Amino acid sequence: MLRAGCRAVLPRRPPGSAPRRRAGGTGAGAGAEGLKQTPLDALHRARGGRMVPFAGWSLPLQYEQGHLQSHLHTRRHCSLFDVTHMLQTRVYGRDRVRFMESLVVGDIAELKPGQGTLTLLTNEKGGITDDLIVTNTLEDHLYVVSNAGCADKDLAIFRGRAQELQATGSDVHLEVSDNALLALQGPSMARVLQAGLSDDLAKLSFMNSINTTVFGVPGCRVTRCGYTGEDGVEISVPAGRAVELAEQLLDAPDVWLAGLAARDSLRLEAGLCLYGNDIDETITPAEAGLMWTLGKRRRAAMDFPGAAVIMAQVKEKPRRKRVGLTSVGPPIRPHMAILGPEGRPVGTVTSGCPSPSLGKNIAMGYVEAAHSRAGTELTVEVRKKQHPALITKMPFVPTQYYTAK
Fold this sequence. Notes:
Structural class: alpha+beta
Distance between the termini: 22 Å
Helix content: 10-25%
Number of helices: 10
Radius of gyration: 21 Å
Largest sheet: 6 strands, mixed
Number of strands: 21
Mean pLDDT: 93
Shape: globular
């Protein structure tokens, strides 16, 4: 999924590291710097996590093995990410689908029980307020996961709209979950997780969800999704037992803890957007190449925020488009200028890093539509010097999402 909120602030690496030991803890709290802490905070520190501020939370940037090895381990084996900072909301009531469709572009009504979808929260100008995963659970409510950096904004929108509908007699109400959220990602995920499940993971396809017991911890929501491009799950687990579940998963030799650095390079290789960098309230789904999130029925009805602007762009073609870029030489970073054949600025980089999997630079950005075709040769200005870059189809690394046979 397109998942994040803001860029991490990277402090200097502290000298030494804590010894590896088991850690306990319940419920999210606040640290000395006023940052929120996940229930796994002590575990991260005990296992050598380098903690940094991220969207108001203290989260691990990386561990002792470093970013490169962590990234490659996820591609080859399996990693556990703490994504408790994401906002988890449950929407109840007979009008819950109407409520959600009044805010997002997706066809929520067509979701089968247990099925979820990536969708976009839009504003009246067609801009993307946030990207969300909405699941139609088997338990008669919608389960919504939002970006941490947008949590306050999203919750205000949700509550405001719910109050409007309630005032007209509609049946809808919200519940914010205090569960922890763990993401287990990588090719050996299914083997590791199946050992702690009575449910058959082979029957759970990408973007589908079940409520089950995981390694003896009841009340866990397991959704087959993630932000790495690999086969993976996100597990919403009661906060008081999050450490217990994490340690059970980490007992498997294949599973390493991974942090924000690996999460960012993995999602970029998979061609997934980072909210606040690659999409925001000034960018529309048409410009971002995310029109696939709009259901056919919703396009015809044009009953979502910003519909007139978005559908006009589809008809007239957007003037700028999100593209992938590859290059050799110095890394491409956000805010760098993308130049056309004549040296004129034609776009801007929004995300970029050296790809651990490919051994070359990859990036994402927006360019004028005339320069957006794959194979187009452009240049990127790095430290006042121009370096060749090639428009490249995304994902840069093939995705491995699982579909049940």
